[in-house]
Each structure stands twice: as C-alpha cells, then as structure tokens.
Specification:
By secondary structure, the chain is α+β, with helices and mostly antiparallel strands. The protein has a single domain, classed as Beta Barrel (Thrombin, subunit H). The protein is built from 7 helices and 20 strands. The protein has a 7-stranded mixed β-sheet with strand order 3-13-19-18-14-15-4, covered by helices on one side. The longest helix is centred in the first third of the chain and has 31 residues. The termini are far apart.
Length: 336
C-alpha cells in the first residue's frame, strides 16, 4: 500500500470513529430526553443527626402557624403542555396491596361521610393520626402541605404530592412532618425528612399524572411504630369510593384542622396524558396538597394534586400505577 493510500485509509478510519462517537452522543442525548417518566429520582434532605436536630428545632409552633399553604392551580394549557412533553405510558400493571399497621393503639372512630370537607374532631387517634402536616422551605419561603404515613419495612416513609417535594426543579429543604397536627399542637412530635424522592414525569416536566413524592423520616423514633400507617394499593380499577384527607389552609379554612372529603370516583381529566389524573368532589383549598385519598377504609390510592379555578369543589389526583409502584419500591427499605 502506498503512503498516500495509507494516509487516506487512516483518514477514513478517523472520520468513521468521529461519526460513531457523534452517533453515540446523539443516542445518549435522545435517551435522556425520553427518560422513563415513571422512574424515580432522589434528593438528600438531611444527612446527619445534628442536621435532623437543627431542622426539628427550626420548626417552632410560630413558624408552623405562619407557613404558607402550597397550592397547585394550573391552567388547562399548563397541564396539556406538561402532558405533551412526557413520553406516554399505560401506567397500569398488576394490582398490588400493602396492608396498614395500627401503631400503638387503635380507634373505633369511623370516617365521617358527609358531602364536601368535614373536620375530624380528634386527629390524634388511629387512623387519622397517620395523616399530618408537611412543613418545608422552598425558594426562600416557608410552606405547608399534607402527607400520609404508609406501611414499609423500615416504618419511616410518608407519601405526598410531587410539588411538595420539588417545584420547578428545586427540591424542598428543611422538610418536617407532624402527624396528628391539631390547633397548633404536635401530639407525636416532629419527624425530619432525610431523603426525598419523586418521579421523572413530575421532576422533568411537571406532568400532574406523576405528581407524587415520598420522604424518608430520620431520628431515633420510627413514625409508623408511633402512629401506625395506612396500607397502599396500586393498579386498582379507577371506580373507587375515596376519602380524601388534608389540612386546607386557604379561606375558608385556617390550616389548624384535619378535614376529610368522602367522594366516589367522578371521572378523568382529558387534558392529561396516560395514566390520566382522576377527580373527586372536594372543596379543600391550598395546604391540602399531598393529602391522601383512602380506599376501602385503609389504603392510600392517590393524593390531592391540583384543581382548576374554573371548577370549584373538584379535586384532581394522580392514578397510582407504575410510577407510584416504582416510587414505593424505591423508598420502602430506606433508612437514615
């Protein structure tokens, strides 16, 4: 082979290598752009006992009272834009059930069944004490949502809305949970989140079909051992009878009382992508975000997510399908 031919061959090989490298990068970029919307991401919220103690002391009763209720009132255009940006999935798999636990003491109180939101007179008894208020810092402000203790092997996990954990790509900080909160009192103390997790579809696109988060609670006490837990069900038929719980804080509510909204499944939001969100009749306001939708008296099966200003008395929540299963599996064995 002549020197000229050898040089030409080397040039062709170099060009081919460059083409392959560029193609590989393009494939990587493309895979990132279409990342599985039901996959889970994490954020470390508190990584030491000293930090947990600091956050617990930060949330004084006064700071809790003055925290701003977080709300999600998107327009249909906002919801549609996020849905279009997310790779569609069926969101439906095999039905799965995790049973509840009772905690230290059970209660014979029954869940109220009246139209729209009605107050729970004593949220310190089971199962109401598995519901609680979630306090956190975000973008310089102090905010409040609602959350639910769910049964896991570690007894340290709560579920809430995705927008209570990460908003606009910014993760919440100084996250603390107060089960059974009532009129400014924290009957079982304050539990600090050491890790937050949410789902790609929410984190990357703010797709309300994936507006779910989970937090792992640190400290020496295990929250579910203290107050008990709700069970959790996935991939159920949508036609359920729900009881939604939360701490609404915007008028006419004041955030000091746990409320419940009993309602049958009413329908889906056609603006969303699969798995489409669903709605119930409920007039709870900002602050109730993340509160649990309970089915069959014991099982978490959605959370308060959003509402439209043009539809008062209607609450939307995500379907607990593949994304929710992935989230539960990602956190169920985590401990501080």
């Amino acid at each position: 082979m002549s020197p000229t031919s050898a040089t030409a061959m080397r040039t062709k090989r170099l060009i081919a290598a460059i083409v392959l490298a560029v193609a590989g990068l393009a494939t990587l970029w493309a895979s990132e752009a279409v990342a599985d919307p039901a996959a889970v991401q994490s954020f470390s919220a508190a990584n030491s006992a000293a930090r947990i103690k600091q956050i617990k002391h930060y949330w004084t009763p006064q700071r809790m009272r003055h925290a701003t209720p977080l709300t999600a009132t998107p327009t249909r255009r906002d919801v549609a834009r996020a849905a279009r940006a997310t790779t569609p999935t069926s969101g439906r798999g095999k039905m799965k059930t995790v049973p509840p636990t009772l905690g230290r003491a059970a209660s014979t109180n029954s869940e109220a069944r009246t139209p729209f939101a009605n107050p729970i007179s004593n949220p310190t008894v089971y199962p109401y004490r598995t519901q609680g208020k979630l306090f956190f810092k975000s973008r310089g402000g102090s905010y409040v949502c609602s959350a639910t203790v769910v049964n896991t092997p570690t007894q340290r996990v709560i579920f809430s809305a995705g927008h209570c954990a990460v908003d606009g790509g910014v993760w919440s900080r100084k996250v603390a949970f107060v089960p059974g909160y009532h009129n400014g009192h924290s009957p079982y103390g304050t539990f600090v989140a050491t890790e937050l997790r949410s789902i790609n579809g929410w984190i990357q696109n703010e797709n309300f079909s994936y507006d779910i988060s989970a937090a792992v609670l640190g400290g020496t006490r295990k929250v579910a051992a203290v107050v008990g837990s709700r069970g959790i069900k996935f991939n159920l038929a949508r036609q359920q009878n729900f009881v939604s719980f939360g701490y609404p804080a915007a008028p006419p509510f004041n955030g000091s009382t746990l409320y419940s909204c009993p309602s049958a499944y009413k329908g889906q939001d056609p603006t969303t992508s699969n798995p489409r969100t669903q709605w119930i009749t409920c007039n709870m306001t900002a602050g109730s975000s993340g509160g649990g939708w309970i089915v069959q008296s014991h099982y978490l099966n959605s959370v308060n997510s959003y509402g439209y200003k043009s539809q008062p008395g209607r609450m939307y929540g995500p379907y607990f399908g593949t994304g929710a299963v992935n989230l539960y599996n990602a956190v169920k064995n985590l401990a501080p």
